[in-house]
């Protein structure tokens, strides 16, 4: 859509177009057309940044809490649970829906290796979120709270079972982070595409 400025000359001189405060010529203003495909890409990228960016911070939450005081660990598990339920899971849904839309509307194919691999990663991450991370934090929070309660006002000794499960969660979290980075690499470089 283009809007054009026209002026009626009040003298024999040629009319000058209005100027913006910054001195820009305002004769024509082009309003960019934004397509639904571009909106889909915007939503797709935003979901990745907002939904999964916070999950990378989870990698430092546990060690920081342990260094300060293990009494912070129940909060860490509640925060991880909230991030995974309210940020990562909805973001995953947005990524999946917008990704499918982009394949159907763009010059893309589900048969392309980079698309198939990216979708496989999204499905694996979805399974890990719902089948591992959320249940794990629901278990680990009460476990560490019981250890803290048992310690009373004295130093907290964490159970071997809790430490083993927390360590496993950290390793699975690292693997998930690597998978996210691989998916981003595939989507940016589109190898074979």
Number of strands: 2
Main β-sheet description: 2 strands, antiparallel
**Shape summary:** elongated
Number of helices: 4
The chain-level structural class is mainly alpha
Helical coverage, percent range: 55-70%
**Sheet with most strands: strand arrangement:** 1-2
Q: Give Rg in angstroms.
A: 26 Å
Give, in order, the helices and strands: EEHHHH
Poorly predicted runs are 1-9
The total domain count is 1
Q: Multimeric state of these chains?
A: single chain
Mean pLDDT: 88
Distance between the termini: 33 Å
* Fraction of residues in β-strands: under 5%
What does it look like?
The structure is a single chain. With 193 residues, this protein is mainly alpha-helical. It has one domain. The protein is built from four helices and two strands. It has helices spanning 36-68, 73-105, 113-151, 160-189, and strands at 2-4, 28-30. Strands 1-2 form a two-stranded antiparallel sheet. α1 packs antiparallel against α4 (160-189). The radius of gyration is 26 Å and the shape is elongated. Residues 1-9 have low confidence and may be disordered.
């Amino acid at each position: 859509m283009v809007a054009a400025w026209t002026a009626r000359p009040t003298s024999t001189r040629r009319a000058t177009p209005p100027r913006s405060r910054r001195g820009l010529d305002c004769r024509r203003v082009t309003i960019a057309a934004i397509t639904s495909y571009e909106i889909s890409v915007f939503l797709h990228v935003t979901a990745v940044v907002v939904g999964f960016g916070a999950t990378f911070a989870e990698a430092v939450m546990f060690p920081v809490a342990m260094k300060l005081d293990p009494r912070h660990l129940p909060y860490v598990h509640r925060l991880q649970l909230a991030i995974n339920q309210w940020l990562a899971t909805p973001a995953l849904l947005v990524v999946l829906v917008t990704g499918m839309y982009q394949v159907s509307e763009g010059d893309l194919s589900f048969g392309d290796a980079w698309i198939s691999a990216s979708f496989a990663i999204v499905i694996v991450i979805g399974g890990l979120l719902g089948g591992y991370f959320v249940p794990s934090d629901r278990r680990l929070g009460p476990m560490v709270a019981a250890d803290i309660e048992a310690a009373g006002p004295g130093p907290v000794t964490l159970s071997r079972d809790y430490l083993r499960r927390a360590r496993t969660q950290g390793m699975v979290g690292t693997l998930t982070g690597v998978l996210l980075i691989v998916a981003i690499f595939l989507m940016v470089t589109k190898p074979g595409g």
